[in-house]
TrEMBL record:
Keywords: ATP-binding, Nucleotide-binding, Transport. SUPFAM superfamilies: P-loop containing nucleoside triphosphate hydrolases. It comes from the Bacteria. This is ABC transporter ATP-binding protein. The lineage of its organism: Bacteria, Bacillati, Actinomycetota, Actinomycetes, Streptosporangiales. Belongs to the ABC transporter superfamily. The keyword ATP-binding applies. It holds the Pfam family ABC_tran. Residues 19-260 form the ABC transporter domain. PANTHER family: D,D-DIPEPTIDE TRANSPORT ATP-BINDING PROTEIN DDPF-RELATED, TRANSPORT ATP-BINDING PROTEIN. One of its GO terms (molecular function) is ATP binding. It comes from Nonomuraea salmonea.
Length: 334
């Protein structure tokens, strides 16, 4: 795994938090019950830091990302940016979205086919009433790797390759000169040959502009190649987090171990039984215990924690830079 890593520099533990989730809960009504999509999350993204948020589909990572963007309001807890709590007035959100921008996974779906590249990138600056629109669009396209930018101004999305369309989406985010990008599966729809280019672009933007980023993905290989830290989410909570190299070379939580086992270089494939539980019916004890291979194998019983796994709630992990895991068994072997 270490041979394939092209990731960024190690992050110091003193880096100040720029974007934070503090004890964040987000619930939705579902068939007469409450679905706990985000069920107590602490997460901090430092200045110039890339954090990967990983987990299966339905684990709550997209809801968490939308809440960090101000697109969902938390049921409790708060989002903080640059030390201040996020306000939800139209004026406050307008100012906030100049600082924190979304990059969607599907450039074809997020670009209007009737709009030229220029119009797509100029949309944000127009909404915010920024002067020098043409210069802003040209600079954003250049930073996104579309050069010379004027050559792309009058082109339409269908005239571009998938990688070029994704660069246009990134340019649209860059046009507002944000401090943080929230990238939801930014390379999922791209060919393997193009993925590396987009990941390299994100790293270049961090190096040149000091951008921070939250990269939402189900792909731990992507996390390895781009992130400074990784947070693994399961059923609404972060169950393991820490420096990417530490977590992905020595995972402590059984769920992280299972996710890593699907990578080609993994010596053993771990097949989880069943599907993630319904977020309206989160089980007691460890929320992963019904699918946990450590509990099923008898190792948890040997360590004397099987009863705790089934009945004792785990603490919500704090937002700290050090490696940590919410797992009764991991506590006995650490």
């Amino acid at each position: 795994m270490t041979e394939t890593r092209t990731a960024a520099e190690e992050v110091g533990t003193t880096r100040s938090a720029l974007l934070e989730a503090r004890d964040l809960h987000v619930e939705f009504a579902s068939r007469g019950r409450r679905a706990r999509a985000v069920d107590g999350v602490n997460l901090a993204i430092g200045e110039g830091e890339i954090v990967a948020l990983v987990g299966e589909s339905g684990c709550g990572k997209t809801t968490l990302a939308r809440t960090l963007l101000g697109l969902e309001r938390p049921t409790s807890g708060e989002v903080r940016y640059d030390g201040a709590g996020l306000g939800y007035t139209t004026k406050a959100l307008r100012a906030y979205r100049r600082q924190v921008q979304l990059v969607l996974q599907d450039p074809t779906g997020s670009l209007n086919p009737r709009h030229t590249v220029y119009e797509a990138v100029a949309e944000g600056p127009r909404i915010h009433g920024l002067a020098d629109e043409r210069d802003i669009v040209a600079t954003a396209l250049s930073r996104a790797g579309l050069r010379p930018p004027e050559r792309f101004f009058q082109r339409y999305p269908h005239e571009l390759s998938g990688g070029q369309r994704q660069r246009v989406v990134i340019a649209g985010a860059l046009a507002l000169n944000p401090k943080v990008l929230v990238a939801d599966e930014p390379v999922a729809s791209l060919d393997a040959s193009v993925r590396g280019e987009i990941l390299a672009l994100l790293l270049k933007l961090r190096a040149e502009l000091g951008l921070s980023a939250l990269v939402v993905t189900h792909d731990l290989g992507l996390a390895w190649n781009i992130a400074d830290r990784v947070a693994v989410m399961y059923l609404g909570r972060i169950v393991e987090s820490g420096p990417v190299e530490q977590v992905l070379t020595a995972p402590r939580h059984p769920y992280t171990q299972a996710l890593l086992s699907v990578l080609p270089e993994s010596p053993e494939r771990i097949v989880l039984t069943g599907e993630p539980p319904d977020p309206t019916r989160i089980p007691g004890g460890c929320r992963f215990h019904a699918r946990c291979q450590v509990l099923a194998s008898g190792k948890a019983a040997e360590a004397g924690v099987d009863g705790r796994c089934r009945s004792q709630l785990l603490d919500i992990l704090p937002a700290v830079p050090d490696a940590q895991a919410a797992c009764h068994y991991a506590e006995t072997v650490s």
